[in-house]
Specification:
This is Pyocin large subunit-like protein. Helix content is 51%, strand content 4%. α1 crosses α4 and α8 runs parallel beside α10. 13% of the residues are buried. It has 260 residues and is mainly α.
């Protein structure tokens, strides 16, 4: 396949076997390396196990274009011949080409298949049972957590105003309001939450009402009524003179005067 790579050693040009082939073929060292590249590429392309079925010594020589080249490979043990005449590449598993990668992937896949064989053999009913048990454990844990949470709240006996948020108020606005009341040492109670919830019911912008109350430092959600600074004095005794009976309890004398 175009673009595939084959493994060729970086010290191949100085390898002793190359020089033995140079001596046997009376040829240039680089030409030997070029012929090896062609031969090894053929093995990588057309063999999965290192055996080139149908390729004889003469056939390989014809492909390389060099009579005697294959025999020189055989003499340095870079090739051999089977009984049926097919060429064989020794230590083919060390060859790092596309086929080697495919063989490595196949081997890895087979190992994974053996490892996961038990998992694949699990029946559908067994898988359903596993899922059912897992779901049951999750439900039991959820119920237990809920009971523990409710028990802790009941044990503490403290009212959490965050749980009494009016429906038309956002969570953030209500949380800010609860924090404000806490900071001014006037924490919300269940009764005050109920009253304020009724006051905010139907309001066009309840979040803004709470924000205004916080910014002004109010205790309530609306402007507080301030007591008048005019003091109430007791009613003056110097009134009602016209209605008084000044003769009551007095004795009138003969001359018209009154005795005290």
């Amino acid at each position: 396949m175009a673009g595939d790579w084959i493994k060729m050693r970086i010290d191949l040009q100085t390898h002793p076997k190359v020089f033995r082939m140079v001596s046997a073929l009376k040829a240039d060292r680089l030409r030997i390396i070029g012929g090896l590249h062609i031969a090894w590429s053929i093995f990588d392309t057309h063999s999965d196990d290192g055996v080139l079925h149908g390729y004889s010594v003469d056939a390989m020589d014809a492909v390389v274009g060099w009579p005697g080249f294959t025999q020189a490979m055989i003499e340095v043990e870079w090739a051999s011949v089977q009984d049926d005449g097919s060429l064989v590449m020794p230590r083919f598993d060390e060859h790092n080409g596309a086929s080697a990668k495919r063989r490595a992937n196949d081997s890895e896949r087979k190992r994974n298949d053996r490892k996961n064989k038990g998992v694949r053999n699990v029946s559908a009913s067994d898988a359903d049972n596993l899922r059912t048990r897992e779901e049951k454990r999750r439900e039991e844990k959820k119920e237990q957590d809920q009971k523990q949470g409710a028990g802790a709240q009941a044990k503490s006996g403290k009212f959490d105003p965050l749980t009494a948020k009016p429906e038309n108020v956002s969570e953030k606005a209500w949380a800010d309001w609860c924090q404000h009341r806490k900071e001014i040492r006037k924490p919300l109670t269940a009764k005050s939450c109920e009253q304020q919830g009724k006051a905010l019911l139907g309001h066009a912008n309840p979040d803004q009402v709470l924000a205004t109350s916080i910014s002004n430092g109010w205790t309530g959600i609306f402007p507080e009524k301030r007591a008048s600074n005019v003091h109430q004095f007791p009613q003056s005794r110097h009134t009602g003179f016209a209605e008084r009976d000044y003769q009551a309890g007095l004795i009138q004398r003969e001359d018209g005067s009154y005795a005290l």
